Amino acid sequence: MRWTDDDIDDDIQEQVNKRFQVFANLPGKERTFTLSPAALERWRPWFDHQMQEANIRGGMLSGIQAKMPSQVGRLALILHCMTPHGLDLDVIDEQTMAGAMALGAYHLEHAQRALAPILHQAPSRPNDLTARTLRLLEHSPVWTSKTDLHQRLGGHVRSDALTRALTQLREAGLAETQDQADTGGRPAQLWRAVPSGYREETELTKKVPA
User: Fold this and answer.
1) Which residues, in sequence order, are bridge partners of residue 192?
2) What residue ranges define each of the domains in the chain, with the CATH number in brackets?
3) Which are the contacts of 131, defined by CB distance < 8 A and separation ≥ 6?
4) Surface-to-core class of residue 200, CB atoms within 10 Å of its CB (0-12 exposed, 13-18 middle, 19+ buried)
5) pTM of the shown model
6) Are 153 and 166 in contact (CB under 8 A)?
7) Distance between CA atoms of 94 and 66, rounded to whole angstroms?
8) Are the C-beta atoms of 92 and 43 separated by less than 8 Å?
9) CB neighbours of 172 closer than 8 A, spacing ≥ 6?
10) DSSP 190
């Protein structure tokens, strides 16, 4: 993103102002919003991943990670109500939930950068996907598919980025793969972490936290 001197379109600003005016005039009645089946299917593995990451991280960032489900839930409700017919619908769809998760990931990354000077550590970078993938494999008791890994990473990681992370782990001797038998089609690849006692020290093993 680069700096621009362009102003927000007056029509868009007027629409937003009108929307907030609608919120201000709402009656003080409680309403319950639920997730659509597709949104709930996306939410479950994402929630489990946040709790797992909170347990792994420890320290100040662990507390922030543990609060992500509550914050993303609020963001999903805000996004839902900002849509043209959101106030008329009590069900939040998958696209809205995905947007809320993306916003949550954005703010979490900035929290990591803000805490880095305090914790005297380098801020997290996009390539820490390799480390996150390894942690998921290490905490999985069975062989894991790429599809399952993608869901446990929140469902918003690019497929090619995950493939590169897995390849890097395999080449470093940190992960191994096998084909899933009897799938009725093209065999799916399954992954698991190589036990730490069988790993050789490489440049990558020095960088990826145990």
Assistant:
1) 176
2) 32-119 (no CATH), 126-207 (1.10.10.10)
3) 207, 208, 209
4) exposed
5) 0.54
6) no
7) 22
8) no
9) 202, 204, 205, 208
10) E
**DSSP at 185:** S
Residue 34 φ/ψ, nearest 5 degrees: -120, 170
Beta bridge partners of 175: 193
CA dihedral 42, 47, 48, 50 (to 10 degrees): 130
pLDDT per residue, tens digit, the chain (210 aa), is 577 788 888 888 888 888 888 777 777 778 889 999 999 999 999 998 888 888 776 677 788 888 999 999 999 999 998 887 888 889 999 999 999 999 998 888 888 778 776 655 444 444 578 888 888 888 887 888 998 888 888 777 888 889 988 988 888 888 899 887 665 666 678 999 887 655 455 444 444 444
Residue 204 and residue 1: Cα distance in Å, rounded? Answer: 31
Looking at residue 100, what is its pLDDT?
Answer: 93
User: Which is nearest to 81 in space by CA: 14, 16, 11?
Assistant: 16
The tokens 């003080």 sit on which residue?
Answer: 28
Q: Secondary structure of 116-179 in the HEC alphabet?
A: HHHHCCCCCCHHHHHHHHHHHHHCCCCCEEHHHHHHHCCCCCCHHHHHHHHHHHHHCCCEEEEE
Q: Is 76 exposed, middle or buried (0-12, 13-18, 19+ CB in 10 A)?
A: buried
Q: Which amino acid belongs to residue 200?
A: E
